[in-house]
Amino acid sequence: MVVIRLARGGAKKRPFYNIVAADSRNRRDGRFIERVGFYNPMAAESEKGLVINTERLEYWKQNGAQLSPTVLRLAKQAAKAA
């Protein structure tokens, strides 16, 4: 099953997350199919904290991908801001 979830990156105490479409059997930070966006919870005022390619997100949802609860919350937040 394909799942859209967060893959953690960044340094210690400075998280950065890629929003990725991945096979559910792969590790959290492991191999993924496509990068759909990113989330930076530590973003400064001048930086973008959340970017999601909504076209690709909809494509994956239409093809049966499941969104993790956090990605679902972030997608709603991005839609509200747009």
UniProtKB/TrEMBL annotation:
Per the record, GO CC terms? ribosome
Query: What is any Pfam family matched here?
Result: Ribosomal_S16
Which UniProt keywords are present, listed alphabetically? Ribonucleoprotein, Ribosomal protein
Top-level taxon: Bacteria
Record-linked InterPro entries: Ribosomal_bS16, Ribosomal_bS16_CS, Ribosomal_bS16_dom_sf
Instruction: Please give the HAMAP family that the UniProt record associates with this protein.
Output: Ribosomal_bS16
Q: Which family does it belong to?
A: Belongs to the bacterial ribosomal protein bS16 family.
Q: What is this protein called?
A: Small ribosomal subunit protein bS16
Encoding gene per record: rpsP
